[in-house]
Amino acid sequence: MKNLKTLALSLSIAAFLSCKGNTPQNQVAIIDEFIEAPVIIANTKPATIQIALLLDTSNSMDGLIDQAKTQLWDIVNKMSSAQCNDQQALLEIAIYEYGNSRLSANDGFVREVLSFSTDLDLISKELFSLRTNGGEEYCGTVIDKSLKKLEWKDGKNDLKMIFIAGNEGFNQGSVPFSSSIAQAIEKDVTVNTIFCGDWNTGTQLRWKEGAVLGKGEYMNLDHNQKSTYVATPYDDEILEWNKKLNNTYVYYGRQGEDKKMAQVEMDEMVQEASIQANVKRSVAKSSSNYRNSTWDLVDAMEDEEMREGFFKSENLATLPDSLRNKSMKEITAFAKAKKQERTLIQNKIQELNKKRDNYIKTQSLSESNGLESAMFQAIKKQSSSKEYTWD
Fold first, then answer.
1. Which residues span the membrane (predicted)?
2. pLDDT category, 19, cuts 50, 70, 90?
3. CA–CA separation, 341 vs 244, rounded Å?
4. pLDDT digits over 300-318, tens only?
5. Backbone φ/ψ region at 215: left (φ over 0), alpha (ψ -120 to 50), beta
6. What is the mean pLDDT of residues 369-386?
7. How would residue 129 be classed by pLDDT, with cut points 50, 70 and 90?
8. How far apart are CA 265 and CA 257, in angstroms?
9. Considering just the CA atoms, what is the radius of gyration of the chain in Å?
10. Rounded CA separation 352/203 (Å)
11. Taking each helix axis from N to C terminus, what angle separates 139-149 and 177-186, rounded to the nearest 10 degrees?
12. SS3 letters for 27-57?
């Protein structure tokens, strides 16, 4: 019954907000009048999609990094439709860079930029921090290190993939790629290779061989091609609702305030790269893949493990001033109210995004991009061996 009441409430409010005469400015203000439904928490753990992105950051790879920075949000949005056993699959992304002379030769010119993370703001920040420089590109070494150092899942339906992108010989370095990929197969990790350049050249440089051994896909792309997005009449409104969405996040913890500031800073950085890329980011933030339970009160109350240990003095002391002296009951009620407000805003962004997509289709336009398209096709194909469906 509680689930049905929650659904009915959400539908009623969504219908009200869509009525003519309700402006974006006054819609959020009336939300509190409707908040009654409890937060519903799932009891079973969903499957996880793990993507280790291994990026060549040598001199010639600026275009690849630019694509990764802006197209991350397309990938996240498409992952939002992944279901396993009727549950939304979780998404974790790790980043390695290789082939950069600024990196240590003792480490094979390889650096773990970020271990597996669900923190999309942090993932984006790390991509924006990457800088290219000449170096030696050792594919076998970076694959080997990512397999040994990352915490790979072992669930039956967990989908584990490496995507390695570069443009030099795949067989360079002291660690044979064949032995690295053999480790991947033992861990049920699929290795996909993306050659930045001509298909035949990549084949000659053994990138296709790497994909065949890794039971993955061999792909090529023009890494210097600019990401293409279509401007639509809905973009500005999505960005306005994104600002309201940011206001539903309530920081706590040692890094909470900094994380809250980083959320807005990443909006600005992505928008500087491309307004439409920030529209995609806003849509991603309205999905279940955008989770911040380590610093946001509302997400923490939704996370069973985080909620159990939340009411400690060190957490309460870092809440905003308006909440620090509230009781546990008052804080919980506040978090539920903010959750309802957030859900309504996210639903509005999703609704506008559907209109955006329809507009692009009716105009016979396309936003398909190199890195994003290559990765998504491989992910969807490889998920077919497990119990995944795609909305």
1. none
2. low
3. 10
4. 999 888 888 899 888 999 9
5. left
6. 89
7. very high
8. 12
9. 22
10. 42
11. 30
12. HHHHHHHHCCCCCCCCCCCCCEEEEEEEEEC
The whole model's pTM is what? 0.84
Structure tokens belonging to residue 119: 């923190």
Say which DSSP state 188 is in.
T
CA nearest to 379, candidates 77, 52, 86, 161: 161
Q: Note whether 193 and 214 are within 8 A (CB).
A: yes
For 150, the token pair is: 């990352």
- Nearest partner of 239 among 345, 341, 358, 337, judged by Cα: 345
Q: What is the C-alpha to C-alpha distance for residues 343 and 346, in angstroms, rounded to an integer? A: 5
Spatial distance between the Cα atoms of 181 and 204, rounded to a whole number of angstroms = 19
At which residue do the structure tokens 């905003």 appear? 320
pLDDT in tens, 40-78: 444 467 899 999 999 999 988 999 999 999 899 999 998
> pLDDT value at position 26?
53
CA–CA dist 110, 125 (Å, integer): 19
